[in-house]
Amino acid sequence: xxxxxxxxxxxxxxxxxxxxxxxxxxxxxxxxxxxxxxxxxxxxxxxxxxxxxxxxxxxxxxxxxxxxxxxxxxxxxxxxxxxxxxxxxxxxxxxxxxxxxxxxxxxxxxxxxxxxxxxxxxxxxxxxxxxxxxxxxxxxxxxxxxxxxxxxxxxxxxxxxxxxxxxxxxxxxxxxxxxxxxxxxxxxxxxxxxxxxxxxxxxxxxxxxxxxxxxxxxxxxxxxxxxxxxxxxxxxxxxxxxxxxxxxxxxxxxxxxxxxxxxxxxxxxxxxxxxxxxxxxxxxxxxxxxxxxxxxxxxxxxxxxxxxxxxxxxxxxxxxxxxxxxxxxxxxxxxxxxxxxxxxxxxxxxxxxxxxxxxxxxxxxxxxxxxxxxxxxxxxxxxxxxxxxxxxxxxxxxxxxxxxxxxxxxxxxxxxxxxxxxxxxxx
Length: 427
Fold this sequence. Notes:
By secondary structure, the chain is α/β, with parallel strands linked by helices. The chain has 2 domains: 10-80 and 249-418, Alkaline Phosphatase, subunit A, CATH 3.40.720.10; 87-243, no CATH class. Helix content is 32%, strand content 20%. The chain has 14 helices and 14 strands. The strands form 2 sheets. An 8-stranded mixed β-sheet has the order 10-9-11-1-12-13-2-14, with helices on both faces. Strands 3, 4, 5, 6, 7 and 8 form a 6-stranded antiparallel β-sheet that branches. The model has no long low-confidence stretch (mean pLDDT 94).
């Protein structure tokens, strides 16, 4: 009997942001992935190959940005531009070479002893019209500082992008945001991280911008109304992630010879896609939080599949949010909702045509409330995939899988090879 060559041609990559965790006492020293009801995620593990994945390297704590760069096949050590440019691009700002871009939060502070003390880094996770109007007000009144053009745009919820455009700038400055779980700490001063005149100038401008944002917002009518309603005022911008766009970056299609589409939930991830020339969208109702509209994400995913892209990346932010908030119940719930999404995707495609894979950009343990260097579980199913004896998708089960432990751009390389998109290296 003559054997017929069979190979999947397309791929779906489901990225569960921050889904990995560490053992939790309230769960009997298991992780949310281990206790969640997730028959479809487990099915991918059961009929496919599993393993562990270090987006950067063992023990290195990835950011959402560097973790996604690696998943998309770009070495973060070479191509990482800083979080600021990625988020700015995601909000629609045309970031140019030489620009310095920063992430920012609408935050809540109070004056105490001559310092601005951070009460809530996200102003109660402000969203909607209040956030949009406050950012628009800042954009209209903060257009220039010391001859440098200032561009401000609203992202999702409390998130804001800032671009500085002018002479003598560079991204080598520290954050003014004190960091996750540092409420009660003062807003930091931006300082140079390299002994350069451009860094000193940029840090000075950012410090002036942060202070000006407070002066503009502290008595804004929206914030006065929010206080009366028992809501936190969004009375300052705090910044982090300064960076600049690299000049030697090849578009994804040129780099790998395949088309890709990205369905995601936040501007940072969308900005990474745009930076790499990957088409994408944030679907209506995709909040990047636990109340996200999973059905809307599903519709966007199925539409991208129908349009014939070689790879469709699907990003869900909720597990990371739950980890940062130490909300293990919420993490379990969003994992189970992602499981529903994966089940619906499986109903609408054939595993003889598609490789379906599960991964994450990093681990966000509830006990740590931040990203850690723990590897994340991966599972890959479809025709041609070697099937191991792992039956569940979680951090411990997948450690026994036949893929082993891979890192960085290895994950995308495996997907491209399974879809016949990798060229032979050598004769």
